[in-house]
Predict the structure of Tetratricopeptide repeat protein 29.
Amino acid sequence: MGAPRCCFSVEMKVLPQEIIQSPPWHTRFEERTICPPLDFARIHLIKDKDGIDDYLAKNIKGLSKQEAAANRNSYKENICIDMLRQGYHKSFSELFTLIQKWNALREAAGPGSAIWQGQSLEEQPDKLDQLYHFLTRAEAAQRAGRSEEVYDNQLNMVYCFDDPEEKQLRNYLYEQCFNTAKLIKTDGGKRQAQAHAHMGLINEEQGHVMKAAEHYEAFYQLTEGTTWKNETGHTYHSLACEHLWRIYILLADKMLENKEQEQAIKTLIKAIRMAKTGGDKKMEGEAVYCLSLVYHFAGEEKRALSILNTSVKIFTSLCDSAGLRRAYEAIDKILVSQGKVSESLKHLEEFKKVADNAHLSQSVVDACVLTGNIHNARGNYDKALEYFTQAFEAANTLNNLSLLNETRTYCGIAKAHKLMEVFNSHIEAEDPISLKYLLAWKKNRSDMCSDPLTDELDRETSPCEPSPETSPCESPPETQIGG
């Protein structure tokens, strides 16, 4: 549930037209001129050079030196020259730094990569225009002591690099924004809060969870009591709560890896608090579910079950089928591991009842599959087939072919196990009657009679007739057992 990097985006503008346009071409000569004799020209140039220059400037129109250079140079060179002419030396250096970093990324990615196959930064005039515009505006604002404008223009440059391969350039510019935001004292900390959020995302992406938590906590503190919103209408404070909720869960996971259950529990309690502060019930349910797992790993099964029941209530109120399945599955595992199978089945019946009442077909499927799995594992294949069939019927109401095939497979497994019981009993009997049953079944692939030792058989033994009704577990002959 990560927050996108563009959550604080600023509207991007392009370079003004007079900068974008290349110098216009001119007709070299307006009319054909007759060249004077060579000797006369030499004498004239020697004697009156200034006069000739004045005459040529007034009467012969062509390209100036600047116009000629502009047409000879690359687009990047023209932009750099223009920066230097206007005195933007820092912008010139920064543009070269970005180009060098882009080239380094390309070399690191190597041939065949997306960045290698694409155009270089120097060959993208639109992007160069934007960089020219924002770099020079940022430098001008810096000279005037307007740090807010510097930050805004630096942030706009970030959005020039929106390809995944250019991630390192974005991170470099985000760091510059963060350094600038520290100097701003006139906006109540809004831009500094944005910068902390960006740095938190960068560190989280790089796996530096503790550093990310520090930035998110600073983001949370700066946004507390504010009404600032992003372009999607979410308040900065709710975003800070979401970031902290997510990072606390990641921290708790790392603590569990290091066998630090107590610290993990404290961290997850903080995650629950962040979810409640942000007013997000789904986040609260997820954090509560994670806390129950930590108590389970710590061996506190009773407390884990109590917390799982809390998560069930939250997920039920949200009609969250995925959350309900995970919660009930965890309850089932804990109870079965304690040998409380009947209690586990009771909880799953409650799950199915809740799902039926809420018209959650997906949850009905989940409840039936979990119940069927318990019966199947304990050898109650008739019961398992009954629940798997109910799961298949519930899946039929959903437009989900994958789920339908999954439940059909469960039915096939239960029926195969049921068939194997009878098949094995015939094998173990080792008598002619059982052999006839097996041969007849092998020929017709119908369900075998339940007990060959008590049934009267004719000399021409034939298998029981298959039911004309089809069921979800029936499959083509070539896929049946014994083929």
User: Anything to note?
Assistant: The chain is about 70% helix and 0% strand. Residues 20 and 42 are 43 Å apart (CA to CA). Confidence is low (pLDDT under 50) at residues 1-47, 449-470, 475-483.
